[in-house]
Amino acid sequence: MEFLSFLATFVVLRLSLSTTTFAVVDTIRPSEFLRENTTLVSSVGRFELGFFSPGNSKNRYLGIWYKNISAQTVVWVANRCEPINDSSGSLTIDDTGNLVLYGQNKRVVWSTNSSKQARQPLVQLLDDGDLVLRDEKDENTENYLWESFDYPTDTMIPGMKLGWSLRRGLTWSLSAWKSVDDPCDGDLTYGIELVEPHHAYPELIIRNGSAKLYRESLGDGISFSRTYNNNNDEFSYRHIYDEEVYYMYNVIDKSIISRITLGERIEHREWMEEDKYWRSYYSIPSDRCDYYGVCGANSECVKTKDKICQCLEGFKPKNQDNWNKMYWSEGCVKNSSMSCDDDKENDEFLDFSLLKLPDAQYTWVNESMNLNDCKAKCSSNCSCMAYSINCVLWFGDLFDIQQVPSHGQYVFIRIPFSKIATNNGKARTGLKVEAKRAVIIIAIIVGLAGGSILIGIYIRRGAYFYESQDDDLDVPLFDLHTINTATNNFSENNKLGEGGFGPVYKGILEGGQEIAVKRLSICSGQGVNEFKNEIKLIAKLQHRNLVKIFGYCIRRETKLLIYEYMSNKSLDYFIFDERQSKRLDWPKRFQIICGIAKGLLYLHHDSRLRIVHRDLKASNVLLDEYMNPKISDFGLARTFGGDQTDGNTNKIVGTYGYMAPEYASNGMFSTKSDVFSFGTLMLEIISGKKSRGLYNEDSILNLTGLAWTLMKEGNAFKFIDHGLLRDPYDNMEEALRCIHIGLLCVQQNPIDRPNMSSVILMLSDKNMLPQAKPPAYFTNTDLYGGDHSSFANPPSCNLSITTIEAR
């Protein structure tokens, strides 16, 4: 600590020597003053606090700004609406231990008004721009009596929060300046609001006075339905949802200078030192669709269309004449009335994907309900117009819906039974017309060819047509030409990677929708049955931690699966790469572990059929823009019905290093074999090491053996990824607990392993954990020799297999 204090003093002295206008101080203590000719500087010199005059104003304000940026950029103001009219301002600690700003004639202009008393108060400006008041006698240097981060003005910088704290009674929000000359609170505000406290459904809202200007749902409590597109890798966003509900962001590369500011809109900017300007990453609202309620009730805004407002399926414009003139504010109404007496159970819910969730003003939330129970709850109340995967129910008209191709979510919207019947009738009529056309074509072909060879070819093609349009697949059939165009004819430049079943390509559909296309290799182990199995399974699964399918295509030997594109690639891309792994601090890794666990729990317990994935591994966990995990690749999955809990197969499929012993040796699979894979994956996430490596001095122990040995020796902390050891002690304790849980999951006997509901309970509380028995494998044996690939690949294919890097 003495060395650090000396280093901080050295930095301040060096800055003092280079400053010609101001005297520089590093702290303020009682009886010391910060005046017009002095500034308080953070130890690394990035921020400084002092007096300034904004724009053309001659008024003086106490503020914090970036020290080494030529264009003065203020990030916080103390006396926003109480300017000092001359150069008499001074800042000091008074006899109550509070930080006080005085103006002319010792008038108190501003004060911290902290109720906490300090034995030896001290004021510091931290390196992250936070001005803090603390007790110098307190050994916990982060136990602040007051901090400026708790009182944001118009700017959010990394580490600050937007939201509120029930525990501390604080609200964190931004308010714009009145003008460039006046930092007093303007009409625009930006922060998190709760619809009603007992609903616990937060939304990010920009208001102009009391009117909503922009609204952004925090959706499922985990991820944002962001309407802007930010694909850079420099920022990580975090949303916490507990006693404190807040949104914050951090900069991964600490050399980046970044800020979010509320002016005419929200702007996220980064300072470009070479060009001396603030580059904008995004601004919201950014287009007409972003503005709150632009299309009125029961409609969606589609920014790619000339007429951006479209009535939802089953609705029509309330005033057709005004709608035609593009006056959309009156919105849409139901095509037909919904009966509250007899017909409510017959109404259907259409699945609208990739939407910004509707305004939550009239909602009810019960996240403990599964999807079927949630639908039943909504069906039983004719005022319920929609529900979502995490069981949010919307009542009355639906407002502020927008198509969001990159970040949208699923909403199930109620449609009258009469509308469904009409649509089905139209579909049947269309099929009859197509059938008549097909008969005419057949007659012409047969007549012209006059030979059995052409007839045989036609019959074969007819078989393909039948095969490619299975009624029970429940997802759109894409035309091959459409996918060729989207992927630029499967260009190598669009290739994301290659797995055991074939390559994966990025594509962009007409309209801008990003997709990932899995193209099955001709000699892959996954044939038509496995391919259709994956389609059927994913189409019926609705969970935020499972990948979404958009459609499929079958054309002769070509089999394509089209699903959502995940901008942050797969988990193995991060945890096994020394550079990329630095982007995953412990809170992110723990969030990923919990997300995978919730996805598995849904497969094992909450979905209509009990599903065993059979190939859970790091490359099959994809990460979205906010690092939320989604389980993918269901080609090897198997379903159980009723009370069935296990199965047997003669064909062992899966991936070396993740397979449970009873499955690898005897073909017995169950939900507990998935638990084994999860435990292995969990240990990989904690350690940053691959499961099949050899890690002790004698090159005998594999990953599970290493974890077990270190835990028995009392050295489990050595198992944690070195990059995480800088994290706070609470994170270390949580990581050690996760190692213990991981070892419980990889025990030899399936009976000893916990189920996923128990795993989630263990992850969420601090109760004593049961003693783990030795893991199934201490060493790599001949059973797990060979390449890190799937068992299902036929040896005759001679495939060169690499892990998929992105989806």
Polypeptide structure, described:
This protein is α+β, with helices and mostly antiparallel strands. The strands form twelve sheets. The protein has an eight-stranded mixed β-sheet. Helix 4 runs antiparallel to helix 5 (452-468), helix 9 (586-606) runs antiparallel to helix 11 (671-687) and helix 11 (671-687) packs antiparallel against helix 13 (729-745). The longest helix has 33 residues, at 417-449. The chain is globular and about 85 Å long. Residues 1-21, 220-233, 420-446, 448-469 and 780-807 have low confidence and may be disordered.
Helix/strand layout:
Elements: H1 2-18, E1 23-25, E2 27-28, E3 34-35, E4 38-41, E5 47-52, E6 61-66, E7 74-77, E8 90-93, E9 99-102, E10 108-111, E11 121-125, E12 131-135, E13 144-147, E14 155-156, E15 162-165, E16 170-172, E17 174-179, E18 182-194, E19 202-208, E20 211-217, E21 235-241, E22 244-251, E23 258-262, E24 266-272, E25 277-284, E26 299-301, E27 309-311, E28 315-317, H2 320-324, E29 332-334, E30 348-356, E31 363-365, H3 371-379, E32 384-388, E33 392-395, E34 401-403, E35 409-415, H4 417-449, H5 452-468, H6 480-486, E36 495-499, E37 502-508, E38 514-519, H7 528-540, E39 549-555, E40 558-564, H8 571-575, H9 586-606, E41 610-612, E42 621-623, E43 629-631, E44 638-640, E45 646-648, H10 661-666, E46 668-670, H11 671-687, H12 703-712, H13 729-745, H14 756-764
Parallel strand pairs: 1-4, 26-34
Antiparallel strand pairs: 2-11, 3-8, 4-5, 5-6, 6-7, 8-9, 9-10, 11-12, 12-13, 14-23, 15-16, 15-22, 17-18, 18-19, 19-20, 21-22, 23-24, 24-25, 26-27, 28-29, 30-34, 30-35, 31-33, 32-33, 32-35, 36-37, 37-38, 38-40, 39-40, 41-44, 42-43, 45-46
Helix pairs in contact: 4-5, 9-11, 9-14, 11-13
